[in-house]
Structures are given as structure tokens and as C-alpha cells.
Amino acid sequence: MSRYLLDKFLYTVDRDPELVERYRDDPRGTVAWWEAERANAVLNCVTGEASTWQRFEDAEREALAAHDYPKLFELGAHPFLTLTLFIAMFERDHAEPLGFQLQYAARLAHFNLPYPDIAT
Amino acid sequence: MAEIVAVIASTHHPFYYRASNATGDDRPPFADEWVAKIERFRETLTRARPDVLVMVGSDHFHQLWLDNMPQFLVGKAPFYDANWWNEEREFGLPKMLLQGHEELSAHVLRQGLDAGFDLAFSNELRIDHSITCPIITLRPEADLPIVPIYTNIFAPPLPQPKRFVELGRAIRAIVEGWPSDQRVAIIGTGHLSLELGGPRQFGPHGPDPDFDRKAVEWIATGDLDGCLAEVTLDSLHSPGNATHGFMDFMLMMGVAGENEKADYVDSLDLFHTMEAYFTWYPDGGGR
How many CB atoms are located within 10 Å of the residue B160 CB? Predict the structure, then answer.
């Protein structure tokens, strides 16, 4: 399980305007590129120093590649990170205020307490 | 010694800025009532005539990240830039620049460490809406120096609720022991029941109105015993998956003091979450 890496993907994409659009338009390609090129970057190190062992599990990679936010919730991705990034990508497609947020809640309606663990 | 002229605890709602500035068809129906309540709340700080603000909040995965996550962190910098691109994107929050107060930051750090709190520090901190929302609501001039204090209510494992209360008590004593003639207000923001990224999010009310009613009563009456008897890290999942932000209110109850009734209490039942506003005057309000 690599919840930390799921969160790292959501966090690093959410803060980069170009990556938000790229992930919206080409989720599968963006996830593959990110895992190959960015997953091992230590965020507080400018160049050179990197980790060597970070990789997604298959279910995690597929959930990100499919924009499958209910699955990300099930896998324990941090709900704030998932929500924020998916609002950035998809709120614009809904005419009604909070339209996307309410659809998002409805698609998670089958989850009961306790929710999946989000500890990393 | 420094004087604590006001203790303020509040929710921080990132949509207030946009709602309060919206006009015409864009202005939500609840905006006028919300603005009126905020203006009354603001007056509770204004009348205390503070010189410096100690601001308690929680970074929302903006600068503080899982590769190096502090539980409690004090900013010590001459300035703090504020609000992040994704907050501008989602909430329409403006870029801000706030002045720091390094002398008081250094005092809080030294005395906090010596009191048994292993506080992290930051000399370059860009602050987020947990601190800028109360600036926007309570001091929109943004003209006073601040000491930001961040807590981890976000990334488990979290400190226990009682630790938040203990830190609040310590902050109160530390500020009162600051050798200065400055007038200090201590302001902290958190949440009542709240769900983000879960099935109960963005409902017509907060996800757990019963919890909210109890929480307002605990805070308004300073009922730390009652609050600590019911609130645990596990129990906070039940009212909503982001309700651990309530621990920042518990910290502020520690600042205000055991069984200290708030001098000002107000709330507003909004969609998504209940807003709640509290002010204590440690000197009884006599100025």
C-alpha cells in the first residue's frame, strides 16, 4: 500500500496549474509520466537527491488513471487532497453551484463509518 | 508584561470573502446576514485595541507536507506572504502580505520549548486561509503584526485533544509572561462538524447539528471537562471526516481558561458547516 504516494500525486498536481490541466485532459498519460519522472523526487530537494523505491500499486495507479475518486476514497487517499484537485478539474463542467460537490458526495454514498483509514 | 486584551475563537470559512464581495445575481441569499454577523464579531476585536495578533490555525497541505510534518509549528519571520494559488482558484482569496513579530515569535518558541512543547519553527512561511480568513473577517486592514502558530489537525497521527488544550494554556501563560507593554489578541480558528471529500459533504447544514450544538455550548461556557470527556481522536470521525479541526477550538478553550464563559457568542447555520464566533475579554472588557 502506498497511500503516501497517492497523496503525493494529488498534492503535487493540485499545486501546479499546468499539471491540473494535463491530468484532466490525459489522466492515464499523466499518471504514467508522473510515476516515472516525479514519484521519487524529494520535494524539499531541488535537484539530484531522490528516492529510489516509490511506486504505485496497480489498484492505485488505475484509480488515478481512471479519475476514480470513489476508489481513491476507498484506498485511503486523503479526502481533502482528492476533493480539492477534482473540484479544480471538474467543477467547471457543472452549471449549478456545488453541482460537482453534490455529485461527488452522492457517488460516495455507499461508504459508512468508519471510513477507510487515511494514515500514511 | 504584555496584556492579553482579547481571546477569539472562530470557524474559518473560505467562502466568506467571495460571498461578502459578491453583487447582483452572484450574491448568495445568506450573504447579508453573514456580513452583519461578521461586522458585529469584528467589533469585539476592534474595541480591544490590540497591537499584535497571535494567530492559531492549521495548514491545509500547502507548505507543510507528509515528508516532514510538524505537530505544532510557530512562524518566526519578518513577513508572511499569504494564500496559495489553489485557494485563489477555489475560493477567490486574494494574495496578502502580513507583517510578522519576530520578538514575540522568539519568546513563544523559547518559552514553549522550556515548558515541554517541542515546537517546530519556520523562518519562511506562506500562510493559508486558516489564518487569513480571520484576518479578512476580524481585521481586514491586515495592519497588525502576527505570530502564526500551526497545529496538525489534518495528517494522522495527530496529537491528542488534551494536548491542544494544554498548548492553549501554555500559550496564554507564555504571552502573559512576555516582557512588553504590547496589547495582544490571541485568535484561533477551527471547525465544528465538517465533512470534506466524503459522502456527507456540502449538505444543507453541517454534517452533525447535534455535535455543533454541544460544541457551541462547551466553548461558550468553557466546559473543558465536558468537552474532554466526550471528545477523542476516534470520536471526532463521527461528526464528519474533517471534524478534527475542532481541536483548534479546544486549544482556544485552553487559552480562554477553564469554565470561562465567553463574553460574545454567535453562530450562523450555513450550508456545509455551522459558523461560530466567540470572544473572551480576560480583563473583563474594562479598558
Answer: 14
Residue B36: strand, helix, or coil: helix
3-state secondary structure A61-93: HHHHHCCCHHHHHHHCCCHHHHHHHHHHHHHHH
Integer angstrom CA distances of residue B33 from A63, B19, B30, B41, B92? 42, 11, 6, 12, 20
> Which helix (H) or strand (E) segment is A31 a member of?
helix A27-37
User: Is B126 within 8 Å of A91 (Cβ atoms)?
Assistant: no
Q: Is A83 on the interface with B (CB under 8 A)?
A: yes
Mean pLDDT within B29-38: 97
pLDDT of residue B63: 96
pLDDT at residue B212 is higher than 70: yes
Residues of B in contact with A73 (CB under 8 A): 197-198
Q: Which of A3, A5, A103, A108 to mutate to test the interface with B (most CBs of B within 10 A)?
A: A108
* Cis ω for the linkage preceding B28 (within 30 of 0): no
Strands B3-11 and B274-280: antiparallel
The 10s digit of each residue's pLDDT in A56-111 is 999 999 999 999 999 999 999 999 999 999 999 999 999 998 999 999 999 999 99
pTM for the structure as a whole: 0.97
Structure-block grid coordinates of residue A47: 535537484
A32 touches chain B (CB under 8 A): no
Q: Residue B190: enclosing H or E segment and its boundaries?
A: strand B183-190
**What domains can you pick out in chain B, each with its CATH number?**
3-280 (3.40.830.10)
CB of B146 closer than 8 Å to CB of B52: yes
Q: Where are the domains of chain A?
A: 3-107
**How many other C-beta atoms are found inside a 10 Å radius of the C-beta of residue B113?**
13
Q: Tell how strand B146-151 and strand B72-75 pair up.
A: antiparallel
Give A71's contacts in chain B (Cβ within 8 Å): none
- Cell representation of residue B175: 504571552
Q: Single out the residue of B129, B115, B131 nearest to residue B75, CA to CA.
A: B131
Query: Is A41 near chain B, with CB under 8 Å?
Result: no
Q: How far is A22 from chain B (nearest CA, A)?
A: 16
